[in-house]
Amino acid sequence: MTIPQMVSAAIGTGVLGGSLYSFFRHNTRRFKALFWGAIGAAMVYAGFRPTFIEILGPDSTELRIRLIVALLSFIVLTVTLEAIRISRMQERYGFLWLATGLLLLAGALFPDLAHAVEALTGIGYGVAVLVVIFAFILLMLFHFSVALSLTQLKLGQIARELALAEERVRRLESNHVAPDRPVELIR
Amino acid sequence: MVPPKNTIVLIPVFNEEANILVLLREVEEHLPGVPVCVINDCSRDGTAQKLKRAGCARLNLPCNLGVGGAMQAGFRYAVEQGYDYAIRLDGDGQHPPAECAALIERMGQGNVDLVTGSRFLADGGYTSSRVRQAGIAGLSAFLSWACRQKITDPTSGFQMVNRLAMTYFSHQYPSDYPEPEALALLSRQGYRLAEVPAKFRERQAGKSSIRRWGTVFYMFKVCVALFVDRCRAVDPRFDRRHVEASA
């Protein structure tokens, strides 16, 4: 057993233990505990069998990329859904994230799909992932520009309305001089 | 020249504590009895206090919107208060209130919705730096073509508008450096424009809010905006013919 393997096994054991503990303590979200538990278990397994990737199929670069992409898109999907759920993000801003996450996940889970795309466009899997991510970033930036412009427009409208209302209040106040002490108003 | 009844003077200001009171006094002198509304575009200096002391109607914008956003607030105010005409003067004192007579006279002749005071039609007076003049010349050529009429001073903010144009501006007014685009929009909606000679002055005190790169950005932004505006559909709610028929 090499040192990295030992480190992996040790950290994995710690993570796994911690997640199991919190799973049964009910003081954290079950889903979160399971997620960390799975990562801990994988680290422990990797400590004892460095070639554990082979349970998924013959080891190759593509398989490794697919694994990473699957994990990445899984994280993107869960984080986005969670953000929408606790209403930190509006649905309309989440759609693009979800669509991209699903697309990447589909490509990683179903190699046939990736191969079909490759046959159609001639783009290999690794490059295709980059193309999808790049397109996503461009779309996202465009989306932000549009949203920013809209927000600025609305901000201007609100600022103008506020200034008009303030002037109207000032005029009302100058007509009815308000007494400083409310006690005198009651008398 | 006495302005028609129901005229208001709109003055957008940004950090003009040195000029504003002088300007207000001048307005009172040359346009006696005409109500004034100052739009304070979130100045960081003592402009707000000066305005308070002057006691005139004022719109204190809670955040800086640029001269376009400020003017739109002014037009909204004028429309809401039922004014029929609005004269715009810049807060830096470039537009002498004494020169308003020419605008008022031209507006009185009718057949026009917006009158601009052009410094290039007048003899003498302050114009601008050489570089800026060259830019203005190019812009003027393009705008004259877009509006199908001669526009000599597209960047002048010295203007008088009637209620029709004011109503349109209160709904839609370009941002950043709005004057050329505003003219193009008006002309596209079927409103009528006119120019009269007017002598400008150099800014009285304080510093201009246009920075060095402002001029370059200005040219670029205005060109893009003018081009895009030509591609836009006419807004039927504010089409001049339609508005006039229903009024």
Task: Tell me about this structure.
The complex is a heterodimer of chains A (187) and B (247). Chain A contains 7 helices and no strands. By secondary structure, chain A is mainly alpha-helical. Chain A has 2 domains: 1-57; 60-169, no CATH class. In chain A, helix 1 (3-25) runs antiparallel to helix 2 and helix 4 packs across helix 5 (111-121). The radius of gyration of chain A is 28 Å and the shape is flat. The relative contact order of chain A is 0.06. By secondary structure, chain B is α/β, with parallel strands linked by helices. Chain B is built from 9 helices and 7 strands; from the N terminus they run E-H-E-H-E-H-E-H-E-H-E-H-H-E-H-H. Chain B has a 7-stranded mixed beta sheet with strand order 3-2-1-4-6-5-7, with helices on both faces. Classes of the chains: A mainly alpha (187), B alpha/beta (247). Chain A binds chain B through residues 155-156, 159-160, 162-164, 166-167, 171, and chain B through 39, 57-63, 65, 69, 72-73, 76-77, 80, 175.
- The structural domain count of chain A equals 2
- The run of helices and strands of chain B is EHEHEHEHEHEHHEHH
Strand order of the largest sheet of chain B: 3-2-1-4-6-5-7
| C-alpha termini separation of chain B | 28 Å
Shape descriptor of chain B reads globular
Sheet with the most strands, sense and barrel status of chain A: none
Low-pLDDT ranges of chain A: 178-187
Largest interface chains and counts: A-B, 10 and 16 residues
Oligomer: heterodimer
How much is the average pLDDT of chain B?
Answer: 87
Question: Given the structure, what is the number of helices of chain B?
Answer: 9
What class do helices, strands and sheet pairing of chain B give?
alpha/beta
The biggest beta sheet of chain B is recorded as:
7 strands, mixed
Give me the Rg of chain A, rounded.
28 Å
Assess the beta-strand content of chain B as a share of residues.
5-15%
Distance between the termini of chain A: 91 Å
The helix/strand class of chain A is mainly alpha
Q: Spell out the helices and strands of chain A N to C.
A: HHHHHHH
